[in-house]
Amino acid sequence: MRWRRKDLIGLEELTTNEIETVLDMAVSFKEISTRRIKKIPPLRGKTVVNLFFEPSTRTKTSFELAAKRLSADVLNFDVSTSSISKGETITDTAKNIEAMKVDCFIVRHSIAGAPKVIAENVSLSVINAGDGSHEHPTQALLDLFTVRERLGRIEGVNIAIIGDILHSRVARSNIWGFTKLGANVYVCGPPTIIPSEIEKMGAKIVYRIDDVLKYADVVYLLRLQKERQKENYLTSLKEYSNYYSIDEERYKKIVKNKAFLMHPGPINRGVEIKSDIVEKERSLILEQVTNGIAVRMAVLYLTIGAKR
Ligand code: CP
C-alpha cells in the first residue's frame, strides 16, 4: 500500500505512485456498483461528513454514495441553517463537529485553501471537494481513471483542456495529474482566461481550438463560468461559442480522430458544447460521473479505511 496521507488536498502534492494506487483500487471498487446489493463493509462504524459551502450535484452525491457503498454513515451538514450564519468560523465549526467523533470531512469551499486550513486544525481526515480556483483532486482522479480505462494508458496521451483555465480548479488538478502520469497536456481558450504561468505546470498553450483538435486524443471541455463575461474576460458568450465550442463540424473531427469528449459538469448547453452532442457516441461525460463513485470509494478507503 503506497498511501500514508491523513488528507487529500490536491494532486500537486501526490506522487505518481499514490495516484496510481487510487486508480488501481478504483478498478476493483467499480464492480461493487454493478451488483444487486451495492454495499461492502470496510467503512462500517466510520462517519463521513459532507461540509459543502458551495453548491454541488455530482461531487456531493458521489461522495455520499461512495461512503454508503463502503458502509460508512454520512452526515450532510447544512451550511445555510448552521451557526456559520451567526458568524462562527469554519475552523470552529469543523472542530465542534470533530468533537462529535466523526472520521472524515469532505470540504467544498469558494475560497482556495479552505480545506487545507480545516485539515491543519483537526486531527481527522479532510478531502478537498473543490476549493476556489485551486484544486478539485477527486474530479481529476476520476478523469484519469476514465481515460486510462478507455485508452488503456495515460502516458503519451494528448489531452486538450479547453475553456476558462484561469478560474478552473478542475484544469489545475487535471494538469497536475495528467502530466505526472506522462500525458501531453494542452490548454486552449481565449488569451484573457489562460494564465501564462500555466506552462510552468507542464501544459502547452494553444489558442486555436481547430489546431489542437488535429492531435487531441481527449478533448476536455470546461464549464464557461458566465460571470466571467461581467468581469470583462470575454467579449460575448456568442463569440466564445463561435471560437471554442464543440459544434457539429468540430465533433466530426473528434469522430474522425477517434478522440473522446469529456466535461466535468455542470454543462452550459449551447455555450461550450452544442446541446445534442453531449450524449453522442464519443462523449464520456456520464461515464465520468459513474466512475466518480469508484474513485471516491478508493479515496475514502485509502484515507480512513486502510491502516496508514
Ligand atoms: N464536477 C463537479 O464538481 O460538479 P458539481 O459542482 O456538481 O459537484
Describe it.
By secondary structure, the chain is of the alpha/beta class. It folds into 2 domains: 16-134 and 289-305, Rossmann fold (3-Layer(aba) Sandwich), CATH 3.40.50.1370; 137-288, Rossmann fold (3-Layer(aba) Sandwich), CATH 3.40.50.1370. It contains 11 helices and 9 strands. The protein has helices at 16-30, 58-69, 90-98, 114-121, 137-151, 169-180, 209-212, 227-230, 237-244, 248-256, 285-305; strands spanning 47-52, 73-77, 104-109, 125-131, 158-162, 184-188, 204-206, 218-221, 260-262. A 5-stranded parallel beta sheet has the order 7-6-5-8-9. Strand 1 (47-52), helix 2 and strand 2 (73-77) form a beta-alpha-beta unit. The longest helix is centred in the last third of the chain and has 21 residues, at 285-305. The chain is globular, with a radius of gyration of 19 Å. Phosphoric acid mono(formamide)ester binds at residues 56-59, 130, 136, 139, 264-266.
Q: Which features does this protein show?
A:
308 residues, alpha/beta, Rossmann fold, five-stranded parallel sheet, four-stranded parallel sheet, 11 helices, 14% strand, binds phosphoric acid mono(formamide)ester
List the helices and strands and how they pair.
Layout: H1 16-30, E1 47-52, H2 58-69, E2 73-77, H3 90-98, E3 104-109, H4 114-121, E4 125-131, H5 137-151, E5 158-162, H6 169-180, E6 184-188, E7 204-206, H7 209-212, E8 218-221, H8 227-230, H9 237-244, H10 248-256, E9 260-262, H11 285-305
Parallel strand pairs: 1-2, 1-3, 3-4, 5-6, 5-8, 6-7, 8-9
Helix pairs in contact: 1-5, 1-11, 2-11, 3-4, 5-6, 5-11
